[in-house]
């Protein structure tokens, strides 16, 4: 089901797939909600196509403000976008007859930063938290400088030229050499991105605080998925944070850079499936595959 909310006079688009316990999948920078579906020959491995999951889980998949079919809102900070997540979550729950309820949020890259901000402000509405190629650390000065250069490039050359230059570097060398179609298909969906949105995202990421305390204080199991070849969020940074929660699920995608849901779709989707079904044991029946 596709749903559109009007917030501040702007359209905010999200999808609802399945029935049961709510899980929100939050995409990252230079993406939209479609990133959660594998590309090419592996399309059919997605948990979003898995009937054994969809009868137990309700996936909520937004296009963040400024991405996909969603407009730019006044507050495009990480915290502001977390508030949009809250509005979407409440709306999706209300459609299923719930005034309120707990959800699991899993965020990729920038979506992880937003998920951490959501967890910080709404810990009682959290059932689970996932960082998929993401980190609780704030930007260091080197990262901020790289983002400033990106902003300059976007302002001079436009959004799509920037994404054409930067997106291939998010994939591992193996993916770039052996599966260039993954990059081509990813880029094809990015032609309508606005430079304004990308600049606002970069500024939001530069201004976000360190949120490692959210991991320390987490009362829910936290999922970490990292790419061994990830240059955007190095595996070293994620490994440093894995011990902080009381309970953590830790997985490495050895052949992936920053786009593991596409580069190792089968493994990534199985990790997500196992984590989600472990969160909701009363829905975890014998049809769950062995780990």
Strand order of the largest sheet: 1-2-4-3-5-6-7-8
Strand content: 15-25%
Give the number of helices.
12
From the alpha carbons, calculate the radius of gyration and give it in angstroms: 18 Å
User: Helices and strands, in N-to-C order?
Assistant: EEEHEHEHEHHHHHHEHEHH
Mean pLDDT: 93
Q: Biggest sheet, open or closed, and with what strands and sense?
A: 8 strands, mixed
The low-confidence runs, each spanning 5 or more residues with pLDDT under 50, are: 283-291
Question: How would you portray this structure in words?
Answer:
There is one protein chain. With 291 residues, this protein is of the alpha/beta class. Helix content is 41%, strand content 18%. It is built from 12 helices and 8 strands. The protein has an 8-stranded mixed sheet, with helices on both faces. Helix 10 (235-241) links the parallel strand 7 (222-227) and strand 8. Helix 2 packs across helix 3. The chain starts with a strand and ends in a 12-residue tail after the last helix. The relative contact order is 0.16.
């Amino acid at each position: 089901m596709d749903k559109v909310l009007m917030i501040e006079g702007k359209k905010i688009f999200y999808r609802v797939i399945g029935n049961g316990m709510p899980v929100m999948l939050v995409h990252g920078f230079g993406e939209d909600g479609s990133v959660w579906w594998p590309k090419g020959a592996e399309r059919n491995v997605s948990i979003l196509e898995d009937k054994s999951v969809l009868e137990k889980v309700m996936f909520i998949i937004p296009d963040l403000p400024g991405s996909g079919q969603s407009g730019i809102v006044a507050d495009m900070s990480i915290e502001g976008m977390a508030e949009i997540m809250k509005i979407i979550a409440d709306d999706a729950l209300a459609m299923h007859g719930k005034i309120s309820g707990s959800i699991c949020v899993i965020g990729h890259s920038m979506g992880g930063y937003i998920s951490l901000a959501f967890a910080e402000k709404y810990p009682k509405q959290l059932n689970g938290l996932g960082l998929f190629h993401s980190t609780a650390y704030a930007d260091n000065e080197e990262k901020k400088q790289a983002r400033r250069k990106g902003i300059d490039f976007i302002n001079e050359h436009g959004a799509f030229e920037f994404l054409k230059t930067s997106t291939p570097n998010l994939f591992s060398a193996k993916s770039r050499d052996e599966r260039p179609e993954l990059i081509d298909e990813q880029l094809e969906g990015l032609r309508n991105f606005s430079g304004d949105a990308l600049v606002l995202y970069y500024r939001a990421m530069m201004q976000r605080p360190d949120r490692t305390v959210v991991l320390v204080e987490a009362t829910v199991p936290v999922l970490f998925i990292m790419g061994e070849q990830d240059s955007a969020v190095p595996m070293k940074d994620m490994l440093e944070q894995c011990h902080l929660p009381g309970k953590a699920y830790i997985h490495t995608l050895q052949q992936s850079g920053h786009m593991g849901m596409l580069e190792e779709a089968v493994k990534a989707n199985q990790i997500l499936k196992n984590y989600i079904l472990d969160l909701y044991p009363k829905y975890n029946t014998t049809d769950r595959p062995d780990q």
